[in-house]
């Protein structure tokens, strides 16, 4: 499932392609036909993202909400749209560009109250321009006995951070994934929150997840770049059994809350 930086990148791209102009909207697959008819020909005012949720804001207080889930994918191009191939849930087009959406978990229209309810059930987004230091998220973390990894991946606590960012932020903070939330100090929380903001902003800018510091890059260490479908240089994510880039200890893995956790037993000594 795409992490929050990808959704923010999509919001920016869709804004650049379509915002400020009337958009032709259709549903070649048919599953979004009623919704497509409601916004077809309307002006797309703006786009935004909250965590892993993408929002297209149309004139008339109508918002398209998309959650890609595990299988959703956007494709786009210039000029006239080609004949639809496969199960195209949503197609957008204007005179210069087209966009197709396939396989999303959610593709629906929301009214203003429903948009407000969506925001209310999500935690703060590290990529939001307005930032209170993640106070609301820290309050939820501090009162819980759940493992930090589970809390940080809970979208009602922190919106947008997925397994890669959470795994790497915990490594950089020197904390095991299993540390109970209630044991986290405000100082350590502030460091994690600001680290997530920096790392995820870099992801928006670069289009990939890089979490290693300058002295641990392939160039600095004289090692081969990481080869993985997710791309990017990381410390422990999906590096089970390989030496830690900092101390050389083999990276460990175990299942936690039905997800694979990764950590260095030396660099992440705090339990």
From TrEMBL:
UniProt domain FPG-type: residue ranges: 235-269
Cofactors: Zn(2+)
EC number(s) from the headed UniProt entry: 4.2.99.18
Reaction(s) the record says it catalyses: 2'-deoxyribonucleotide-(2'-deoxyribose 5'-phosphate)-2'-deoxyribonucleotide-DNA = a 3'-end 2'-deoxyribonucleotide-(2,3-dehydro-2,3-deoxyribose 5'-phosphate)-DNA + a 5'-end 5'-phospho-2'-deoxyribonucleoside-DNA + H(+)
GO biological process terms on file: base-excision repair
GO MF annotation terms: class I DNA-(apurinic or apyrimidinic site) endonuclease activity; damaged DNA binding; oxidized pyrimidine nucleobase lesion DNA N-glycosylase activity; zinc ion binding
Leading EC class: lyase
Key words of the record: DNA damage, DNA repair, DNA-binding, Glycosidase, Hydrolase, Lyase, Metal-binding, Multifunctional enzyme, Zinc, Zinc-finger
Family: Belongs to the FPG family.
Protein name: DNA-(apurinic or apyrimidinic site) lyase
Source organism (scientific name): Dactylosporangium aurantiacum
């Amino acid at each position: 499932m795409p992490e929050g930086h990808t959704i923010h990148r999509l919001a920016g791209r869709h804004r650049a392609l379509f915002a400020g102009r009337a958009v032709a909207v259709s549903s070649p697959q048919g599953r979004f036909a009623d919704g497509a008819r409601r916004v077809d020909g309307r002006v797309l005012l703006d786009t935004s993202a909250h965590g892993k949720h993408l929002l297209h804001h149309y004139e008339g207080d109508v918002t398209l909400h998309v959650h890609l889930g595990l299988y959703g994918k956007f494709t786009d191009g210039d000029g006239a749209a080609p004949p639809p191939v496969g199960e195209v849930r949503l197609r957008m087009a204007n005179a210069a560009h087209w966009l197709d959406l396939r396989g999303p978990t959610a593709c629906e229209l929301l009214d203003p109250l429903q948009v407000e309810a969506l925001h209310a059930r999500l935690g703060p987004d590290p990529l939001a321009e307005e930032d209170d230091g993640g106070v609301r998220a820290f309050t939820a973390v501090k009162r819980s006995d759940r493992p930090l990894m589970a809390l940080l991946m809970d979208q009602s606590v922190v919106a947008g951070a997925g397994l890669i960012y959470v795994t790497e932020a915990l490594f950089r903070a020197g904390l095991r994934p299993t540390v109970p939330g209630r044991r986290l100090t405000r100082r350590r929380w502030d460091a994690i929150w600001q680290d997530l903001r920096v790392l995820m902003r870099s992801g928006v800018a670069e289009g990939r997840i890089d979490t290693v510091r300058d002295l641990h890059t392939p160039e600095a260490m004289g090692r081969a770049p990481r080869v993985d479908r997710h791309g990017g240089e990381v410390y422990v994510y999906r590096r089970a059994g390989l030496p830690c880039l900092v101390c050389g200890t083999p990276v460990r893995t175990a299942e936690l809350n039905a997800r694979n956790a990764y950590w260095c037993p030396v660099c992440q000594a705090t339990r």
